[in-house]
Write a structure and sequence with these properties.
Blueprint (H helix, E strand, L loop, with lengths): L29 H9 L1 H9 L8 H17 L8 H16 L2 H5 L4 H16 L1 H4 L6 E13 L2 E13 L2 E8 L7 H5 L2 H15 L5 E6 L5 E6 L2 H24 L20 H17 L1
Parallel strand pairs: 3-4
Antiparallel strand pairs: 1-2, 2-3, 4-5
Helix pairs in contact: 1-2, 3-4, 3-6, 9-10
Amino acid sequence: MTSEVTPTDGQPDDSAAVAPPLKRPKRLSPSGASAFQQCAKKWRHRYIEHLPDPPGEAALVGSFAHRVLELLMQLDSDQRTKESAREIAAREWPTWESGKDFKSLELDTDAARGFKWKSWNAVSNLWQLQTPPEIEVKATEQNVQATLAGVPFRGVVDRLDLEDDRLVVTDYKSGSAPRSARYRDEKLPQVLLYAAAIADTSGEVPSKVRLLFLGERTQEVSAEVTDSRLEEVTGALADTWGAIDVACTNDDFPTKVGPLCGWCPYVGICADGTAAVAKRNKSQSRRN
């Protein structure tokens, strides 16, 4: 007859041990909040496991254009010309080209030339929307950290301007403006959160926020800053932060599949994502 083995007094039963909650990031950025809303499992891979998430070509095009515009708008107003922008781009390019992110793209000569043209188009399209010498720039690439609706928030403001002695938050988007007004407006919460953070840290509430889409379809999308808009976006941020807390406590990060799964860097380790991509490819092959 076999005897039942039981835990000794004072020794915990490992089978009943509860894993400690996962440690969530100290601060939440707009990109982090967006990633969690897009797919909680992807967020876990990126922000908890810190798995590599190398930027793709479109993201790097945007980053290079941002860098050129940052340096351009730091110049005296009368020096903010396209020629100055070309000189900045030429000066910055060797460092950019030798970076690991750009090298990871493994572009051939023609593709690298195309990358430079895309970046330059994003830079030069600024002149379709604004007159750079006439802009009164207060700051560029300004780091902001604040507590918004109880959420420790952080972000980087592309440009902070002065118009009629009031602050204006300006953010560059290197892609084309969405054709739908609804999708364009969905981009505004990011800059409204920046406005809330600036108000919290400086005591001065910006009067306006704007997005400058610098892709093939250039467009400025702007909104007046109101108390109700700030309450709406900070409330949504708090909801996301709360959902992240629950997910970390329970270690429950559901997958949200969709068309973007094919571009997810973690699709190879995600059964749901792999199945969604296979189903989508099969559907497209049938239509073709």
